Amino acid sequence: MHVGILTGGGDCPGLNAVIRAVTLALINEAGARVTGIGRGFLGLLSRETRRLDPDAVVGILSQGGTILGTHNRCDPFHYFGANGADVSGQAMAYARELGLDALVVIGGDGTMAIAHRFHLLGLPVVGVPKTIDNDLCHTDRSFGFDSAVAVVAEALDRLETTARSHGRVMIAETMGRYAGWIALEGGMAGAADIILLPEQPYQLDAVVQRCREREGREGHTLICIAEGAKPVGGALTVAATIADSPDPLRLGGVGALLQHQLQPLIQSEVRATLLGHVQRGGSPTPFDRVLATRFGWHAAQLVRRGDFGRMVTLAGSDIASVRIEEVANKNRPVPNDHALLQAARGLGISLGA
Ligand code: F6P
Question: For residue 105, what are the domain limits?
Answer without folding.
Answer: 2-143+284-326
